[in-house]
Structures are given as C-alpha cells and as structure tokens.
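So, can you check?
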Amino acid sequence: MSLIIDVRKQLREHVLEVALEVPAGVTVVVGPSGAGKTTLLRLVAGLLRPDAGEIVLDGRTLTGPTTFVAPHLRNVGMVFQEYALFPHLSVAANVAFGLRARRISAPERTLRVASVLERLEIDQLARERTGELSGGQRQRVALARALVIEPETLLLDEPLSALDPQTRGRVRSELQAILRDVSVPTLFVTHDEADRAAFPGRVAVFEDGRVSGTVRT
C-alpha cells in the first residue's frame, strides 16, 4: 500500500509543489513553520483542493484533473494539532463521528468504537465529555477517532505539541507502540527533534513549499 502525492498549490508566500511517494509505515515530515506541511495533510484529507496534480491512495485517485473525492468518502484518518474534538459530546460520540458520516450501521459503530477505546485504554472514559479530559486523554480520543474508520492512510499534524513536556514523553511512547501495529502510509508532521528520533525511518524535509529531500535515519 502506498500514497502518491504530486500536487501544486499557491500559498500566501510561495507555491507548494510536492512530489512524494509515502510507503506503509511512518514518514516524519519536518521543516520550518509556513513551509506547507499542514497544507499537505489537508490536501491529502480532501480539506483543500490543489491547483493542479493528483493524489492516489493504493491505486485509487482521490484528487485529479477530473476527480475529487469528498473528505468523508476518503478512507483517511487525521489527527489535528489541537485535536478538533467536540467538547459537548462524549468520548464515544466523538470517536463514532467519522463512522456516522460514512453511514456505518449503529450496531457496527458500537462494536468498533468499543474496540478502539479498549485498544487505546480509554474505554472507561466512553461516557465522559471531552472538554473534561486531560491533554493526554484528549490525544488518545483524537487518535481513536482517526483509527476507528480503519484508515488506508493516517495523517498526524503535530499530535503531541499541545501536551506538557512530562505528558508528551509518555504519550510519545504509547504512540510508538500503536503506530507499529498500523501498517498504512502515515505522515507525521512535527517540529520536535524528540519526535523525529522516536520514529526512525523515513524523513521528508520541507523547505519553501518543496520537499528538499527524503532521508532514512
């Protein structure tokens, strides 16, 4: 399974031009603020349209000259930097949100939500409102929401940056274990060298809207 990105998008200060093939496993994306890292994730998720180019996931064109698959019809899981949870909904309802959008039946939603909450060891929080949770707990809920749809690709936009330093180290270790079991193309955007070191393998370096190189660590 692979994710192929070949897109062009005009940004405020420069043009984002990316030609990148993402294999199964974690590819860490690094670079200065404003380089286009988050924009790249939003393009893959279908939250933005490129000006030109295409995005192909496991042989299926998600974005192309005559094709644009709506976000809820892409099998793409995304964890936003600030998690983007609904504070008035319970943990279980937040995690089920993507399944509802995909018209998954209620019995299957219940089973899949229960399974992923147990997997991430937050099943005891199912009825809690997300606004009442700690940072580490909210991060797990956001990850559960991304994983419950059984994504073909996973997008992580600085998923640890909102955590305090002590919590960040613990959750980073937990995330390492989870991502080892998720064998799909995964883009992990970060500014933190500790994140980069924790996920050795492939690193894509962004500069001024372009991938200046990919390296293996």
Notes: The helical segments are 37-45, 91-101, 106-119, 135-147, 165-180, 193-198. The mean pLDDT is 90. The longest strand covers residues 2-10. The two ends are 21 Å apart (CA to CA).
